[in-house]
# Entry
Amino acid sequence: MKRVVIGTAGHVDHGKTSLIKAITGIDCDRLKEEKERGLTIELGFASMTLPSGERVGVVDVPGHVRFIRHMLSGASGIDLVLLVIAADEGVMPQTREHVQILELLGIERGVVALTKKDLVENDLLELAASEVRDFLSATSLRDAPVVAVSSVTLEGIPELMRTIEEQVGLASERRATGIPVLPVDRVFTVKGFGTVVTGTLARGSLAPGMDVEILPSGTSAKIRNIQVHDTDVQEALAGLRTAVNLQGVSTSEIERGQWVAPSGVFRPTKAVDARVTLVGRPPKSGIRMHIGTAEVQGTMSVHASGEAVYARVRLKRPVVAAFGDRFILRSGNGALTVAGGVVLNPHPKRRFSLEVMEALCSDDIQRQVEGLAVDAGVRGLSKQEIEAAFARDPEQAVRGVEALASSGRIVRYDATADLYVHRRYLDRLEEQITAELDRFHAEFPASPGMPREHLRSSVAPGADAKLFHKAILNLAKKGAVAQDGPVLARSGFRPGLESRRTDLGRKIAGIIDEAGFEPPRLQELAQSLDIALKEVQEIVGFLSREGLVVKVKDDIHISRRNEETLRRRVREFLEERGSMTPVDMKDVLGVSRKYAIPYLEYLDRIRFTLRVGDVRRLASAPNT
# Structure
């Protein structure tokens, strides 16, 4: 079975549906209104048996301008176009519009059926054929053969079938590898089976039993059964018209324009970066994006670089997209085609970058993956994200990741989650860390360093904690950074007081020592010395680290000499009395309760004493 889908195109009332019925025996007009008006409104589906016996899928699209969105939904899944032009009218507005859309979608192979042959004389038929060839000569369908037919007398139908078979044989099949995705173009219920969706499988393969999800809603389902051309199959491959019977989802939970994909692979997006081909001036108002079978409103910003034109498309609703997916942009009111494009980055994370676009336009998968890593910035990206982005060939993308990691151009910083960051961002993060530590040491020379989390929030608030950890490890290996518990400092740094503060430090240490067991609070010190509280805190912190003063409580510090006296007096009292109360502490030190309680808690904290109920006893192995 050749995995090629044929789609019709052409102006309204040129006989597309009649021709399909003549060559397949199937009337694609299903709706009562379509039959009454003789006007195709919805997509029609059929299968065609070629002269060789091979079967291919057929999609019949509306030709009327009012139903161009339905035409776009059907055209997104075709590989070969059957362009229908009536001999008695020739090339018409929708003929031109449909061909333009086909070009923008990259469809280059087709057959022209010059219909209504029975209604014109031979000379007019030849004139019509000549006009068609002239029109197509400047399009991607310039080599399409033209066959005159009549759907009424069936004249020319055998020749048309042979010609279609020749073109089918020349058409390229879609890749049966990659991560599968099925854009849904029809949803209905089959009695005894439940929900059925149809579409043209864009890539990869689907099989019964697979766990899938309906995107972008995220509804979970399981594939119960699959049919291709009304026949049960154990596997549907890309390029085939596919009907999927879904278990666990109702028809009210899925609609045309959604996607069926393996669970947990794709993350819907509301912005894509793409290379585009403009067919007019970009609209200042909104656009409508037609991707897969979906139609979504949004906006577009255009960026040109030489002959290349790129765009960032922002959408009001999420879609499913991967590298290489084609789409059409129409004006906000849906009246005009604005551009066609190819998705390059389905999940842009930073400001638009021509560097990233040019990398993604390369034929080198390593450059393409590197482009995504550059765009991801300090946040990095996972191998799973890379595989989903390059869903057409995830294995090749993984090889690109491995090669880049081996060369050091990207760095894996989380082995568990397989997270990567571009080398430039890791280098930049390391530079920011050392610069911030240098700044901190210059501003706070008495401090031993910066708390780890404070440093991270200062230099890289958006960075993953594991990336920050990786940068610290790298700097430690280079001998640039030292870590003492939660504090980081530049290697070789020794905290100290500058000359002005040295005298101030001696003065503060003297005041604290002379105050005995009722030292001034830090705020009181700051006021008495007429300096900032922050400066007092820094100096006292330095004195504490140097062992000149001891921190009893956040704002209570005593000298080392007085701390030793404290422990001696408490030991003597406990050895004599066995236990101590807060009142006893007041008497032993001659202090008020506001000091007695903190001293008791301090001695508990250093395990000099042990609290038992409301009294303290000497610890079994006191800290002397």
Remarks:
- Residues 561-618 form a domain with the Arc Repressor Mutant, subunit A fold (CATH 1.10.10.10).
- The longest strand covers residues 294-305.
- The two ends are 89 Å apart (CA to CA).
- Residues 29-42, 63-67 have pLDDT under 50 and may be disordered.
